[in-house]
Amino acid sequence: MLPIGPELKRIIEAKHIIKKDIASQIGVTPTYISQIMQKESIDCALLDKLCKVIGVPASHFFGETAQANQANATTIIGNAEAVAGATPNEVATLRELLAEKERTIQILLSQIGSNTGQ
Q1: Are 11 and 57 in a shared domain?
Q2: Is the pTM value of this prediction over 0.90?
Q3: Which residue of 33, 51, 84, 113 sits 20 to 30 Å from the alpha carbon of 90, by its own alpha carbon?
Q4: Letter string b/e over residues 45-68, b meaning 16 or more CB atoms within 10 A of that residue's CB
Q5: Percentage of the chain with pLDDT > 90?
Q6: Please, what is the Cα angle at 99 between 96 and 105, to 5 degrees?
Q7: Mean pLDDT of the chain
Q8: What whole-number distance in Å separates Cα of residue 57 and Cα of residue 97?
Q9: How many structural domains is the chain composed of?
Q10: Whether residues 66 and 101 fall in one domain
Protein backbone atom coordinates (compact mmCIF):
# COMPACT_ATOMS: atom_id res chain seq x y z
CA MET A 1 0.00 0.00 0.00
CA LEU A 2 1.29 3.44 -0.92
CA PRO A 3 1.47 6.20 1.70
CA ILE A 4 -1.76 8.03 0.88
CA GLY A 5 -0.77 11.65 1.59
CA PRO A 6 2.53 11.80 -0.31
CA GLU A 7 1.02 9.93 -3.26
CA LEU A 8 -1.98 12.29 -3.33
CA LYS A 9 0.42 15.21 -3.31
CA ARG A 10 2.43 13.72 -6.18
CA ILE A 11 -0.70 13.13 -8.29
CA ILE A 12 -2.20 16.56 -7.57
CA GLU A 13 1.05 18.30 -8.47
CA ALA A 14 1.58 16.15 -11.58
CA LYS A 15 -1.94 16.94 -12.82
CA HIS A 16 -1.60 20.62 -11.85
CA ILE A 17 -4.79 20.47 -9.79
CA ILE A 18 -5.38 23.35 -7.37
CA LYS A 19 -5.99 22.34 -3.75
CA LYS A 20 -8.69 25.00 -3.45
CA ASP A 21 -10.64 23.32 -6.27
CA ILE A 22 -10.36 19.91 -4.66
CA ALA A 23 -11.37 21.30 -1.28
CA SER A 24 -14.47 23.01 -2.64
CA GLN A 25 -15.59 19.87 -4.46
CA ILE A 26 -15.40 17.64 -1.39
CA GLY A 27 -16.47 20.22 1.20
CA VAL A 28 -13.25 20.83 3.15
CA THR A 29 -10.71 23.64 3.38
CA PRO A 30 -7.51 23.87 1.31
CA THR A 31 -5.61 23.74 4.61
CA TYR A 32 -7.19 20.37 5.34
CA ILE A 33 -6.12 19.11 1.91
CA SER A 34 -2.55 20.14 2.82
CA GLN A 35 -2.85 18.22 6.10
CA ILE A 36 -4.11 15.13 4.28
CA MET A 37 -1.06 15.26 2.02
CA GLN A 38 1.13 14.75 5.09
CA LYS A 39 -0.73 11.68 6.40
CA GLU A 40 0.14 8.06 5.75
CA SER A 41 -3.51 6.96 5.76
CA ILE A 42 -6.98 8.51 5.69
CA ASP A 43 -10.63 7.48 6.01
CA CYS A 44 -11.85 5.34 3.09
CA ALA A 45 -14.84 7.59 2.38
CA LEU A 46 -12.55 10.61 2.16
CA LEU A 47 -10.13 8.72 -0.08
CA ASP A 48 -13.03 7.78 -2.36
CA LYS A 49 -14.11 11.44 -2.66
CA LEU A 50 -10.56 12.58 -3.35
CA CYS A 51 -10.03 9.90 -5.97
CA LYS A 52 -13.16 10.92 -7.85
CA VAL A 53 -12.04 14.55 -7.91
CA ILE A 54 -8.46 13.85 -9.02
CA GLY A 55 -9.45 11.12 -11.48
CA VAL A 56 -7.56 8.19 -9.96
CA PRO A 57 -9.09 4.88 -8.85
CA ALA A 58 -8.77 4.20 -5.12
CA SER A 59 -7.13 0.90 -5.98
CA HIS A 60 -4.10 2.93 -7.13
CA PHE A 61 -3.20 3.45 -3.47
CA PHE A 62 -3.30 -0.26 -2.75
CA GLY A 63 -0.64 -1.30 -5.22
CA GLU A 64 -2.67 -1.87 -8.39
CA THR A 65 -0.64 -0.89 -11.42
CA ALA A 66 -1.47 -0.09 -15.00
CA GLN A 67 0.12 -3.39 -16.00
CA ALA A 68 -2.27 -5.26 -13.72
CA ASN A 69 -5.18 -3.40 -15.31
CA GLN A 70 -3.96 -4.36 -18.77
CA ALA A 71 -3.49 -7.98 -17.74
CA ASN A 72 -7.08 -8.11 -16.47
CA ALA A 73 -8.53 -6.46 -19.58
CA THR A 74 -10.56 -8.60 -21.93
CA THR A 75 -11.61 -8.15 -25.50
CA ILE A 76 -15.17 -6.89 -25.83
CA ILE A 77 -17.21 -8.35 -28.65
CA GLY A 78 -20.85 -7.80 -29.50
CA ASN A 79 -23.23 -5.85 -27.29
CA ALA A 80 -20.96 -5.86 -24.20
CA GLU A 81 -19.97 -2.63 -22.46
CA ALA A 82 -16.70 -1.68 -20.79
CA VAL A 83 -15.83 1.59 -19.09
CA ALA A 84 -12.36 1.72 -17.57
CA GLY A 85 -11.99 3.89 -14.52
CA ALA A 86 -15.37 5.62 -14.78
CA THR A 87 -17.71 6.03 -11.85
CA PRO A 88 -21.40 5.14 -12.18
CA ASN A 89 -22.24 8.88 -12.20
CA GLU A 90 -19.77 9.50 -15.01
CA VAL A 91 -21.24 6.62 -17.01
CA ALA A 92 -24.76 7.99 -16.49
CA THR A 93 -23.66 11.46 -17.59
CA LEU A 94 -21.97 10.07 -20.70
CA ARG A 95 -25.09 8.09 -21.58
CA GLU A 96 -27.22 11.23 -21.24
CA LEU A 97 -24.83 13.16 -23.48
CA LEU A 98 -24.87 10.38 -26.04
CA ALA A 99 -28.68 10.28 -26.01
CA GLU A 100 -28.81 14.05 -26.49
CA LYS A 101 -26.38 13.85 -29.41
CA GLU A 102 -28.50 11.11 -30.97
CA ARG A 103 -31.64 13.29 -30.64
CA THR A 104 -29.79 16.19 -32.27
CA ILE A 105 -28.68 13.98 -35.15
CA GLN A 106 -32.23 12.74 -35.69
CA ILE A 107 -33.59 16.30 -35.73
CA LEU A 108 -30.94 17.39 -38.24
CA LEU A 109 -31.60 14.36 -40.43
CA SER A 110 -35.33 15.06 -40.43
CA GLN A 111 -34.66 18.69 -41.39
CA ILE A 112 -32.41 17.62 -44.23
CA GLY A 113 -35.07 15.18 -45.41
CA SER A 114 -37.79 17.84 -45.38
CA ASN A 115 -35.53 20.30 -47.24
CA THR A 116 -34.80 17.79 -50.02
CA GLY A 117 -38.44 16.79 -50.41
CA GLN A 118 -38.15 13.31 -48.91
Answers
A1: yes
A2: no
A3: 33
A4: eebebbbbbbebbeebbeeeeeee
A5: 33
A6: 145
A7: 80
A8: 23
A9: 2
A10: no
